[in-house]
Structure formats: C-alpha cells, structure tokens
Design goal:
The chain is α+β, with helices and mostly antiparallel strands. The protein folds into two domains: 4-88, Winged helix-like DNA-binding domain superfamily/Winged helix DNA-binding domain (Arc Repressor Mutant, subunit A, Orthogonal Bundle); 92-299, D-Maltodextrin-Binding Protein, domain 2, CATH 3.40.190.290. The protein is built from ten helices and nine strands. It has helices spanning 4-16, 19-26, 30-44, 60-88, 106-118, 131-140, 187-190, 205-216, 230-238, 283-296, and strands at 49-51, 56-58, 92-98, 122-128, 145-148, 159-174, 244-247, 258-262, 269-277. Strand 3, helix 5 (106-118) and strand 4 (122-128) form a beta-alpha-beta unit. Helix 1 packs across helix 3, helix 1 crosses helix 4 and helix 5 (106-118) crosses helix 10 (283-296). The chain starts with a helix and ends with a helix. InterPro entries: LysR_HTH_N (IPR000847), LysR_subst-bd (IPR005119), WH-like_DNA-bd_sf (IPR036388), WH_DNA-bd_sf (IPR036390). One of its GO terms (molecular function) is DNA-binding transcription factor activity. Belongs to the LysR transcriptional regulatory family.
C-alpha cells in the first residue's frame, strides 16, 4: 500500500518544483524529503521528477500520476471530515415518516428546510404513512422519526410521542352547501351529511380524533366514500360526496368547489406528535426534534 505521507510530499514538490521550498512548506529538512520521494519512486517503479542542479521537472509518468495522487488524498481528506461529522452527529442518514395532513403544514416544510440547511451532510428521506404504519416502521428501524396525529397504543413500550402543537380542525364543505354560507359550523350540523375520511383499516390518527369528537357529542357518522390521502378526501368533498373534518393547514388546498369553515367546538383540534424510539441515542434524532421546536417557537 502506498504511503499517504509520501503522496503528500509528492504533491508539494510537484506544486513547488523545488525541493528546498517544498521542504520548507512541509516543515522538514530537505534530505529526508528527497529520500521519501526516492522511496516513493522505488515503490511505484518509475521516476516522478527529473532533477538537475538548477531545475526540477515532472517526468511524463509523474504528470500522468499527479491527478490520481491528488484524487486519492482528496478522498482521504473527505473521509476524515465525514468521519468527524458522523462522530459529532452532524452527518449520516435520517428517515422521517409523516401523516399526509401534516405535509400541508408550514411546520413540516419549514422544519425540512431548516434541518437540511443546518445539516447539509445528512441524507434525509421522508415517507408518507398512517400513524399505525409509522409506529411499526419506527420499531423495525425503517424510520427514525414519525410526525403523527395519534398517540401510540398504551401497551406500546418501544415508541414514545412528544406533543409539540395542537392545530384547530375545520370543516371542508362543498361550496354549494348551505353550510358554506355560515361563518362557522357545528359538528351536529356536519353530522347531517356523509363524513368522508380515511379508510377504517388505514390506521389514521385523524380518523380517531374525529370519531372521538362524534362520540363525545353523541353524533352518528353517516357513511361516505373514503380516501387514503388528504388530497383525495378534499377531491371527494368537491365532488359533492359529503363533508370532511380536517386540520386547518388543509386550507392550503384551495380546491375549486370546496369551502372551509371553522368548527364551533373549541376542543376540535388535532395534535402534532413527534414519534421516536424510546431510549433513542442518535444525535440526529435529537437535532431534528430541536429544529421542529425552534420552528414552532417552543423552548
């Protein structure tokens, strides 16, 4: 294996084309430098420099070898830098899951932007999925972090949830509905219409929140078509297939034929939860959570 120190000596001499100046840059005496270059030439099997009492020039072989030597040392330096960043927790890979409604919020986009700006050496991947899917993927190690609307089950000892915010829920109504002319609507008024939601077996946190609200107010949910994404749910509302209860950030989907109205019930909110493995040791996970907290102004 070629001695990397000798490669560095070779690059310095090739830059200076003078052994005395190169030795001065390297903070060594000239004779040891000359011996190291001679040893490198013997190792390679060809001369790198033509030397005379007045001039030092690269040989043809030396000129061809120079870019390869430089590339090797650049890669070594890059590896050392990345190794240090990995040890410090500022490089690596982070996999983040999110519920489809969360992707519409400013918090989500601002967090991703701020994190990527602060940690440019981290390879970030994001994956949309229902809350129950996120729990499973975090336990399996496929995800490092989840951004969810629903707490893990009480008997789940491997995933913990941190509530960072509560977002008001709003009603999504067809624009030609009489409810669209009101300043706000009640859940009782919505219950007259079919309620569009995620499929029952999808594992949606938003579904659980809305169903809990209906039960609390002794309301019966009328069946309606379902969608696996918040965009498809809003499309069904625009098609006149029913109403939906969605997070306030969904209003960024300015779909023609859909009107959003606040709900009268103050408890109609959806939490923003960050899911992680318990006893998580990755500094990148902590860094991502800190960035979310900074984004929402949470100490």
């Amino acid at each position: 294996m070629i001695d990397l120190r000798r490669l560095r000596y070779f690059l310095t001499v090739s830059d200076e084309l003078h052994f005395g100046r190169a030795a001065s840059r390297l903070h060594i005496a000239q004779p040891p430098l000359t011996r190291q270059i001679s040893a490198l030439e013997a190792e390679l099997g060809f001369r790198l420099f033509d030397r005379s009492t007045r001039n030092v020039t690269l040989t043809s072989e030396g000129r061809h070898f120079l870019p390869y030597a430089r590339a090797v040392l650049e890669q070594v330096d890059l590896t050392a830098a990345i190794t240090g960043k990995l040890a410090a927790g500022s490089a690596g890979h982070l996999a983040v899951g999110y519920a489809s409604s969360i992707a519409l919020s400013d918090i989500f986009s601002q967090t991703i932007q701020a994190f990527c700006t602060s940690y440019p050496d981290v390879q970030l991947s994001v994956e949309e999925g229902a809350s129950s899917t996120q729990w499973a993927h975090i336990i399996e190690g496929r995800l490092d972090i989840g951004m969810s609307r629903m707490q893990p089950p009480g008997d789940d000892t491997d995933v913990q949830a941190i509530c960072l915010d509560n977002e008001p829920l709003v009603a999504a109504i067809a624009s030609d509905s009489p409810l669209a002319r009101q300043e706000q609507v009640t859940l009782a008024e919505l219950s007259v219409y079919p309620l569009i939601a995620f499929p029952a077996d999808y594992g949606s946190g938003l579904n659980e929140i809305v169903e809990t609200l209906y039960r609390r107010h002794a309301l019966t949910r009328r069946p309606a078509p379902t969608g696996k994404q918040i965009t498809s749910i809003i499309a069904l509302v625009a098609a006149g297939r029913g109403v939906a209860v969605v997070p306030q950030c969904t209003q960024t989907l300015a779909k023609r034929g859909v009107t959003y109205r606040p709900l009268a019930e103050p408890e109609a909110t959806a939490p923003l939860l960050v899911l992680t493995r318990k006893r998580e040791r990755s500094p990148l996970v902590g860094a991502f959570v800190d960035v979310i907290k900074q984004t929402i102004g949470m100490e």
